[in-house]
Design a protein that fits this description.
It is a single chain. The protein contains ten helices and 20 strands. Helix 1 crosses helix 2 and helix 4 runs parallel beside helix 5. The chain is globular, with a radius of gyration of 20 Å. With about 375 residues, the chain is of the alpha+beta class. Strands 14-13-10-6-5-18-19-20 form an eight-stranded antiparallel sheet. Strands 2-1-3-4-8 form a five-stranded parallel sheet, sandwiched between helices.
């Protein structure tokens, strides 16, 4: 018998997140999961009158492909998948697996080629720009471990988060979007952090369950050369199969001029991928009331209640600040009091303190008002 939670999730993905219409092509791409949710999504796409197509992928196979991949092989792989993606009107990416470190020992030069020649054209340039898309993780015992929860408790959290009332959250986001669109100067302070930048004339975009599940953020981008100061991140930051800890970035006129972490050499190699990797493509404020603790999964961590993230690399087209890169690396800072606190000011006005919105028009985004 079909788990009713999967049916509800499939309904959200197809009819809310991607709003599939009759005769639209929908690519369902699943990584390392059982097929129950995939089948539920296929059924829901058919019910909506769409045409579903499915790619079943596995991170262990991806690792094997990359370990000895040539540049020509990755180019051909990307051309093949980019052609497929260009024929789609919607994309649903379901990502699972039992080991987040599966790609950790792929040589750096291979990962750089993969990010530049595959991920950038297929996903950043084609999928993100030209389809209605949503990406989500699928619960597994390994995710439960990362969240320090039992498998049953994590599954309950997962379905609560992914099927919450996103239309209610969406309405509450409008005031933050409006305020960010009227803001010039931003200042972020906290332990080890004093950062300033401008977001003037760069659109603010709400994420209300239509691109990621779980969701709950509003993002924009800093004016490319305006970032100055230091930011110290207090959550683990996975990238290319390695988990960075205690990341500290120092900026001068938009550029990361100093980066340290538990592997300083490794983080600087990533930031040297291309010129845009040392500039920031996204600034976002997170507030999902159900997500409280980091679990080394960015689709969850970037939505943590009382968090923000700052992103070296590619800017989104709908909040474009001129920065281009083959990387897009969300790094998360939690500002709740239990994580050391912190403040966000817009044009010298305090709007959030210790993770809670403190101006009347934004109080609807505090957790007790979203659950």
């Amino acid at each position: 018998m079909m788990d009713p939670r999967l049916e509800r999730l499939a309904d959200v993905l197809v009819n809310y997140s991607t709003n599939v219409q009759p005769d639209e092509n929908v690519l369902i791409e699943a990584f390392g999961i059982d097929h129950a949710l995939v089948k539920a999504v296929v059924r829901e796409v058919h019910k909506a009158g769409g045409r579903p197509y499915v790619n079943l992928r596995d991170h262990q196979v991806t690792r094997e492909l990359l370990m000895s991949a040539s540049e020509e092989q990755i180019r051909t792989w990307a051309e093949f998948d980019q052609k497929q993606m260009s024929m789609m009107q919607a994309y649903i990416g379901i990502r699972g697996g039992s080991n987040i470190y599966e790609l950790s020992d792929v040589p750096d030069d291979k990962m750089k080629l993969y990010n530049k020649l595959y991920n950038h054209p297929v996903h950043s340039m084609t999928r993100v720009r030209n389809t209605k898309w949503v990406v989500l993780r699928y619960p597994s015992p390994s995710m439960s471990q990362l969240a320090s929860m039992s498998t049953e408790a994590f599954e309950k959290l997962y379905f609560d988060v992914c099927t919450m009332d996103y239309s209610k959250m969406s309405a509450a986001m409008d005031a933050l979007v409006d305020l960010m669109n009227r803001t010039d100067r931003v200042r972020i302070t906290g332990p080890g952090t004093d950062l300033t930048f401008s977001i003037k004339d760069i659109p603010a975009i709400k994420c209300d369950g239509k691109m990621n599940l779980p969701d709950g953020e509003v993002y924009t981008a800093p004016v490319r050369d305006s970032v100055n100061g230091t930011i110290s991140f207090n959550t683990p930051s996975p990238y290319n199969g390695f988990v960075f800890e205690n990341v500290v970035l120092r900026f001068e006129n938009g550029k990361i001029v100093e980066a340290t972490a538990n592997d300083t050499e490794r983080i600087n190699r990533i930031l040297d991928t291309d010129e845009g990797a040392r500039y920031v493509g996204e600034f976002s404020i997170g507030f999902n009331p159900f997500i409280r603790e980091p679990m080394k999964d960015i689709l969850f961590d970037e939505k943590i209640d009382g968090s923000l993230h700052f992103t070296p690399g590619q800017a989104y087209e709908n909040a474009y600040n001129g920065n281009d890169s083959s990387i897009h690396w969300d790094m998360v800072l939690i500002q709740r009091a239990d994580y050391g606190g912190g403040e966000i000011c817009f044009d010298d006005r305090l709007i959030r303190k210790d993770g809670r919105f403190v101006v009347p028009e934004l109080e609807g985004l505090n957790p007790e008002n979203l659950k």
